[in-house]
Amino acid sequence: MKRTREAPRNSRGLLPAALALATSAMLAGGTVAVAGPQQDGAAPDNQRASTGNTVSLHDVIPAPTRVSEESGAKFHIRWNTGIHTPADSPEAEEVARYLQRQLRPSTGYGFLINRDQPGRNDIVLRLDGSRAKLGDSGYRMDIDRDRLTIHATDPDGLFYGVQTLRQLLPAKAESDFPRHGPWKVRGGEIVDKPRFERRSAMLDVARHFFEVGQVKTYIDQLAQYKVNYLHMHLSDDQGWRIQIDSWPRLTTHGGSTEVGGGEGGYYTKREFTEIVRYASARNITIVPEIDMPGHTNAALSSYAELNCDGKAPDLYTGIEVGFSSLCIDKDITYEFVDDVIREVAAMTPGEYLHIGGDEAHATTDEDYRKFMSKVLPIVEKHGKTPLGWHEYAKTEPSESAMVQYWGTTNSNAMVAEAAARGNDILLSPAHKSYVDQKYNEDTELGLDWAGPTTVREAYDWNPGSFMESVPESSIAGVEAALWSETVTNSDEIEFMAFPRMPAIAELGWSSSDKLDWSSFRQRVADQGPRWEEQGINFYRSEQIPWP
């Protein structure tokens, strides 16, 4: 059973009625003023992001690598501003269409795409960046009175430059309906590239199920902060959320409930493919997780033969962990794992498949090693690279495998040994980057086993030097993980993720010399009016000087 889908809030796919008015005026050679709410008068400096005043080029999250502002110069987006894109790059044209969809609703302007010579007052997307200086995902933005140009070596860099451009416009540029301008961007130059390749978020859809539209909403929010991976926790004791044709009861039975006894839900293959494609169009790769050998009660309840005693347990709706395990000595267990990994791998074009491996307290250490020795080759057989929680590092996976650290200290012998063997390490220390933890003891939502975790605590650590005996060269990146024991809808996802998810995103993108709490707290404050325009239900932390 699935709930009625919730459409993504702040959808950008529809052309507003005001565009027809703007286009008519363009053809007539005139300008158009689209009716909208009256803007407030002068505001304090820390409200500049929510007014018609221009935003400083420094006020971006994640913090750019290098910024230089040109005093007095401004680029004006007007009714006749177009978007120029290379003629020979369909991917760059997709970025242009994304930008077009973002800016049309609030401005009412057409932003016609051209592939010939860029005109005066155009936004120009160029694939002419230096790979040596910008890498695969970096960009350079030049802004003067006549033109705003984003240079990159590939379309990924153009996309990230577009996210920066969004933040350089007034907060009202995020509106779903036409607003009055002016639409100005300060002159100058931004040169920017990521510190780590992997800037990830995780959404647990197993404890509570989230519909396709809710996942899309979160994807759009992640993309704004240059997050490029979404790890989806698809199975656990409380629910199985992905259709597996060869084992249909996983969803019809195992997906029929959730924490607290709700009706649960699951994604059909078509729906999951829709999520994968939607994320890909926003430079986000979906990483599916099928947790094993523990966290498997939903599967064990669905198929009795997966249990050592041949008896299926009842469905589980609590939040305790560590009590379930696949039967390690049965051949059917590995037939099951092979089928599941084969079908999930076929739905996800990304390199990695997450096999969980955490909190397998009901499995002996000997059985755990035996299980992983059979499962890791299955993952590789189906063309994927294994990724798992750090407990599985004790089985010494191949050098290509990735290890995800979720502990609450900055020292772990298994992780250090894995790094020494050549495994990349993904950091999600629970007391820092688990955004499902309470902000403080009075927070209504969230858990506190690793927290509470304030915004400052989420931000104030350096991934490159965090783990003892693990060099920065072994760090693949960071992940903001959101478990859903207490989270049931999009408003609650947003409340827990904002502003801590942007904090983790900055740690993954920005160079270490740019990580500064006093700067970040002010830049987050400037995001508040933007989140209000987008309808994001963020937590107004007392640590942030909100407007």
TrEMBL record:
Superkingdom of this protein's organism: Bacteria
Catalysis performed (reactions): Hydrolysis of terminal non-reducing N-acetyl-D-hexosamine residues in N-acetyl-beta-D-hexosaminides
Keywords: Glycosidase, Hydrolase, Signal
Catalytic-site annotation from UniProt: 359
Coiled-coil regions, chain positions: none
Pfam family, one: Glyco_hydro_20
GO biological process, any: carbohydrate metabolic process
Principal EC category: hydrolase
The keyword Secreted is annotated on this UniProt entry: no
Family: Belongs to the glycosyl hydrolase 20 family.
Protein name: beta-N-acetylhexosaminidase
Species of the source: Actinopolyspora righensis
